[in-house]
Amino acid sequence: MRLITHNLLACHARTCTQTSNNFPLRFEQITKLELIEADFNEAFVRGFLPKVDWDALVSAARSLGSDVGEGLPKSAPDLDDPMLDQELLKKVHHVLLEMHIVEGQMLCPNCSHVFQIRNGIPNMLLAEHELAR
What does the similarity note say (predicted)? Predict the structure, then answer.
């Protein structure tokens, strides 16, 4: 699972609502993390940046290790700046698209539901009694 995916996931258990603290999911017990290089696509990164919850991205990257989120500023870059630093875009690309969580867990900060990550796939399925209605 890449951090681009993590940045879009929230808990939808019955005890979590859209007004509760169900995002971002916290990484727990990450036992396998891989770097899988991907070609840098500046247009894609620029186009996706407005959709990124910056605080969640920086927090998730730093929770995976000090070197993963290295170079990411604490506050979101100015997206209206046509001269947005290409080095920063490359760092964002690295964090969003090249870091893969292969094995571990994500924990909902609201209801403490655990979502397993196995073989790089997050299991977001809920039991029937956990489904929001």
Answer: Belongs to the TRM112 family.
Residues 6+ apart with CB under 8 A from 117: 1, 30, 101, 102, 103, 104, 105, 106, 123
Average pLDDT, the chain: 89
Domains, in order of start, for the chain: 3-130 (2.20.25.10)
Q: What is the pLDDT of residue 59?
A: 94
Sign of CA pseudo-dihedral 32, 100, 106, 79: positive
Summarised one tens digit per residue, pLDDT across range 9-67 is 999 888 776 666 899 999 999 999 999 999 999 999 999 999 999 999 999 999 998 68
pTM of the model: 0.88
Quickly count: other Cβ atoms within 10 Å of residue 119's Cβ: 8
Nearest to 68 by CA among 48, 96, 49: 96
